[in-house]
Specification:
The longest helix has 36 residues. It is built from 22 helices and 22 strands. The chain is elongated. The strands form four sheets. It has a seven-stranded mixed β-sheet, sandwiched between helices. Helix 4 runs antiparallel to helix 5 and helix 13 crosses helix 14. Helix 17 links the parallel strand 18 and strand 19. The protein is of the alpha+beta class and 660 residues long. It folds into three domains: 286 residues, no CATH class; 91 residues, Calcium-transporting ATPase, cytoplasmic transduction domain A (Distorted Sandwich); 109 residues, Calcium-transporting ATPase, cytoplasmic domain N (3-Layer(aba) Sandwich), CATH 3.40.1110.
């Protein structure tokens, strides 16, 4: 049962929200109607629980009457009333227990509660039997509410995708579904509306709320030609956007897929509890039978009703639902809290993994620096500066690297209609190709060394990033480019050090630049001049030393290292699709400080989950011993069981209220 309880929750949470999808299959109905049903949201509120409330009222009235009123033993009026109350509270539990029993599934809490309560009736403990069923059902009610609240915090992210969009066609505005929009069409977004598709701003300027994607509600002003993403909210005047990605390919759609998949990936703790519950429940049944029958051989006089009652107490308190519900609930809360903060965990298991990290390895460009490069100086050798910029920009126009973009932006109109031929990327070095009949090499100094082209030695001493150019196998000059460190990068490194986490920076940039950035941020170790395979070697060496590593990167060449690390973290704003796809965790707004926040969320979640495990197990063991010894009654058992469950649930729900 316990396994089924947990699985039902997760199947429901991960269910697609598209209302067009059919959901009336037999299997679906079986899942929703044959389990805890925590997954199904309660849309009718307290009215659904009127029978349970009625049962509770009857129980209270009967308990009051029992203090000063004696029923006629010749007519069991009290038994009839108690049976009515019992059926009102326990019909669903009895029904599920019966349906499972006919499939020879006896080791579940529905059957456990049915046996305990019917047993109480059989020995004349009517009020206890009703109380067990009433308070158990109330506990289920609270569990349903808590799980639904956790799901809603995740589902809130899934509801940010608009289901209609205004598109400009044939000189008029038409409203249609976003999946009907084609590339390069112009869509119109009014003030207060959500952007439905990724694209470029076609208006002169616009201000957008990016909270759905980044967790940050600070307005972001975009200029014409800048990227606007689905899920952003237009804050001022009507904006026009040229669509650059289909509905299914938008960053928001990918984020939603990640969140939907995340709750299906269980943590090791969840898997352990699921396996534990499968073994635990039959053992409890066996022990309860032992409590009832074994004393026959040594307790004199042996009174069956006394030991049978103790066995019933044992069954009630042993119900494992506090563990099975509160643990997934804790992880749902962790994923929801992370989502609110613009951090996507692709599974509960990664919430656990990140708590073990003791080394954070980071790429430089786009991770610790903004990746927004600007040309600082052009030094030409044998060519006019404009000519050198034109040739270089024509070749760099074939690359998506931020440095290449900086050169292209700097060139303006000079290289607008100039095309490069036979372009080839030399991994970790740069580009080669031909422009206007000239053979070009554009990249770092390693590229020129690879092709045995001499260049001035003092270039190696420049601190800024340098793009070196060779034309027809001869050195032709260089362009210096500077990047800017992100505002919160220093804070992120300082906080990692407070958590006793070692920091390492790896970069393909030259060592002088890397060392300068590392020194200004206080990074422990920094390595430059690395090819992609060099980054892999450094990370592998750390793993071989027994370190638990998180790698943070954004470029295509970071994907292999992200995959190798224990926890791969991608910067989701500037990050390439390959890196985001490979990563275990995605930081949507590219802020390094969110790395620390992700670690803290993982630690908070794990702490609360283990608090629940400890509280539940300690209290249950104590009351089990008291019950077997005849000290605890069914009243104490049901109060302890429901109390433990509610305590664990309230503790798990606490995650969703944490503010940073």
């Amino acid at each position: 049962m316990a396994q089924e309880c947990c699985d039902t929750d997760e199947k429901e949470v991960t269910k697609k929200t598209d209302s067009n999808q059919p959901e009336n299959t037999d299997e679906h109905n079986h899942v929703e109607n044959d389990g805890h049903d925590h997954g199904k949201e309660n849309t009718t509120g307290w009215k659904t629980h009127l029978p349970l409330l009625g049962s509770l009222a009857i129980l209270l009235v009967m308990l009051i009457l029992n203090f000063g009123f004696k029923f006629n033993p010749a007519f069991p009026f009290d038994l009839i009333i108690y049976i009515i109350a019992y059926l009102l509270a326990g019909y669903n539990v009895l029904n599920l227990a019966f349906r499972k029993a006919i499939r020879f599934d006896f080791f579940n809490e529905f059957f456990l509660m049915s046996v305990a309560t019917i047993g109480a009736f059989s020995i004349g403990s009517y009020s206890e039997g009703v109380a067990v069923m009433v308070f158990y059902s109330i506990g289920e009610w609270f569990q349903d509410s808590a799980v639904n609240k956790a799901k809603r915090s995740i589902k809130a992210l899934l509801d940010v995708r608009p289901d209609e969009v205004t598109v400009l066609r044939n000189g008029s505005a038409q409203v249609t579904h976003p999946n009907e929009i084609q590339l390069d069409e112009i869509i119109q977004v009014k003030a207060g509306e959500k952007v439905a598709l990724d694209g470029e701003l076609n208006s002169e300027a616009g201000t957008f709320n990016t909270a759905a994607l980044t967790g940050e509600s600070k307005p972001d002003t975009k200029r014409k030609g800048e990227q606007v993403l689905a899920g952003m909210i237009n804050l001022d005047k009507v904006s026009e956007i040229k669509v650059k990605a289909l509905f299914k390919d938008s960053k928001l759609s990918k984020i939603l897929e990640m969140v939907q998949d995340a709750t299906a990936r269980k943590s090791q703790t969840q898997l352990f509890i699921s396996r534990f519950a499968k073994i635990y429940t039959p053992i409890v049944f066996a022990l309860a039978i032992g409590v009832c029958l074994v004393p026959y051989f040594f307790a004199q006089p042996y009174i069956f009703n006394i030991w049978f009652y103790r066995a019933l107490v044992f069954l009630v308190i042993s119900c494992p639902c506090a563990l099975v519900v509160s643990i997934p609930l804790g992880y749902f809360g962790g994923i929801g809290l992370a989502s609110k903060n613009g951090i996507l965990f692709k599974g509960s298991n990664f919430l656990d993994v990140i708590t073990k990290v003791n080394v954070v390895v980071m790429d430089k460009t786009g991770t610790l620096t903004k990746g927004v490069f600007k040309v600082q100086e052009v030094v030409a050798n044998g060519y006019a500066k404009d000519e050198l910029v034109k040739l270089t920009a024509a070749l760099e126009n074939n690359s998506t690297h931020p440095i290449a973009k900086a050169v292209v932006d700097y060139s303006g109109e000079i290289a607008k209609n100039v095309m490069a031929d036979n372009v080839e990327e030399v991994s970790g070095h740069g580009l080669k190709g031909s422009v206007e009949g000239k053979n070009l090499l554009v990249g770092n100094t390693k590229l020129l060394k690879k092709f045995n082209i001499e260049y001035p030695a003092d270039i190696d001493n420049l601190v800024d990033t340098v793009v070196v150019i060779a034309v027809n196998d001869k050195y032709a000059g260089y362009i210096t480019i500077a990047d800017e460190i992100k505002e919160d990068a220093k804070q992120a490194i300082d906080e990692m050090h407070k958590l006793n986490i070692q920091t390492v920076m790896l970069s393909g940039d030259k060592q002088a630049v890397v060392s300068k950035v590392a020194e200004s941020l206080g990074i422990d170790n920094a390595y430059g001049d690395l090819l992609p395979e060099g980054k892999v070697e450094k990370v592998q060496a750390l793993k071989n030393a027994g370190k638990h590593i998180a790698f943070v990167g954004d470029g295509v060449n970071d994907a292999p290292v992200v995959a190798l690390a224990d926890a791969g973290i991608a910067m989701g704003g500037l990050g390439s699709d390959a890196t985001i796809e490979t990563a275990d965790i995605v930081i949507q707004n590219d802020q390094p400080s969110k790395i620390v926040r992700a670690i803290k969320i993982g630690k908070i979640t794990r702490s609360i989950v283990w608090q629940n495990i400890t509280i539940a197990m300690v209290i249950k063991v104590i009351v089990l011993i008291l019950g077997a010894g005849g000290i605890a009654t069914l009243w104490e058992a049901v109060i302890a069981d429901v109390g433990v469950a509610l305590l664990a649930i309230l503790n798990a729900v606490r995650i969703q209220r944490i503010r940073f």
